[in-house]
Amino acid sequence: MKLLHADIVYAEDREHLAIHPDSYIAVEDGIVKGIWRKIPEKFRGIPVTDYGDGVLIPAFSDLHVHAPQYLNRGLEMDLLLEDWLNQCTFPMEEQFADPEFAKLVYDAFLDDMIANGTMHACVYGTIHSEATGYLLESMDRRGMRGFVGKINMDRNAREDLLEAPETAIRETEVFLERYGSNRYTRPILTPRFAPTCTPELIAGIGKLGKKYRVGVQTHLVESRWEAEQARILYPECSCDTEIYERAGLLDNGPVIGGHFIFPTEDDVRILQKHGGYAVQCPDSTISIIAGIMQTGTLLDRGVKVGLGSDISAGHHIGVFTQVARSVQLSKLKQFYEPDGNRKISFAEAFWMATKQSGDLFGGTGSLEPGSVFDALVIDGLSDAARKLTPEQTVERFCYIGTKENIRARYMNGELLER
């Protein structure tokens, strides 16, 4: 049993933050037992870890991030999507054929992710099974809940990043068998996006999804270019998302659609039907000028929406920064396209990055009783002339905070070393 004292803030629901100032939280076996203003009699005598004016919040979830692109963050940001892939991204991913290079990058990536308060993630690897396996195992050893995918693609990319469909399917099945029973981090099927996958490959991994009951992550209607290419290459499908539905990829586990910026009515209907997540990646949207998600509209229609850093099209690994960007972009969307779009509140964006996304990983993303205690203590954000409320502290952290404002990190109930 652990007792902690702090100001406590988490998303109660989509529209409201739960605020517990000057309160105590009890954690047992990594699970939150309750929050009180005074220590209950049954807990008296248990040592208290006192964070004073620090604010305790849930750890964040990143639903769309490319681990092998970590070394490219903040570079080549003047390129648009197609050029950025061919000139920057694909050349970097080729280097992950070297397992030792991959280990060096992936360890740094995971350390930085945790340092910035992200403890759950849906992660893209590369086509390289050994390197991607190391990434998955490293997350699992750290106790990070998540999904890691070996990328599948067999056309429209650099030759060294393509596999023959039968090779890709065989290697993916080995990957699923090897890592499918891990405790915290598990495999997820990862066709990069429709223009890089032949119908043969999509059909093959669709069969694997059914056989192993495993979900899928991919890029969905990220840009007009991608959406147009998908319709050209799959003329029998009305939209990007139908390609995966026809292959049976949306019925077996989590469905994670990165970006989802230009959905048709059919895209929205299909994603909602299968309980899939649309993932907004605000910094990425700004950098490669793909477009702005209809965040408020999708939320109002009942679509699950999470946030992603999208390293390295996005330049900051901290998902807390994307909370602020999400609000900003929703305001731009409403201002320039007022018909059918609305701005979202800070509470909604924070909920998307914590409780809504945390549900994907099994009881994380909140501090209400029964939640897995993955949490951060933030402070150092008030001014000498103005002391912030707990809610204001959280908002300021998402707008101007850094990892240096994270005073303590807890994962599965255990305090992590800095």
From TrEMBL:
<dbReference type="InterPro" id="IPR032466">
    <property type="entry name" value="Metal_Hydrolase"/>
</dbReference>
<dbReference type="GO" id="GO:0046098">
    <property type="term" value="P:guanine metabolic process"/>
</dbReference>
<dbReference type="Pfam" id="PF01979">
    <property type="entry name" value="Amidohydro_1"/>
</dbReference>
<dbReference type="GO" id="GO:0005829">
    <property type="term" value="C:cytosol"/>
</dbReference>
<keyword id="KW-0378">Hydrolase</keyword>
<dbReference type="GO" id="GO:0008270">
    <property type="term" value="F:zinc ion binding"/>
</dbReference>
<dbReference type="InterPro" id="IPR051607">
    <property type="entry name" value="Metallo-dep_hydrolases"/>
</dbReference>
<dbReference type="InterPro" id="IPR006680">
    <property type="entry name" value="Amidohydro-rel"/>
</dbReference>
<keyword id="KW-0479">Metal-binding</keyword>
<dbReference type="GO" id="GO:0008892">
    <property type="term" value="F:guanine deaminase activity"/>
</dbReference>
<dbReference type="InterPro" id="IPR011059">
    <property type="entry name" value="Metal-dep_hydrolase_composite"/>
</dbReference>
<protein>
    <submittedName>
        <fullName>Guanine deaminase</fullName>
    </submittedName>
</protein>
<keyword id="KW-0862">Zinc</keyword>
<feature type="domain" description="Amidohydrolase-related">
    <location>
        <begin position="55"/>
        <end position="413"/>
    </location>
</feature>
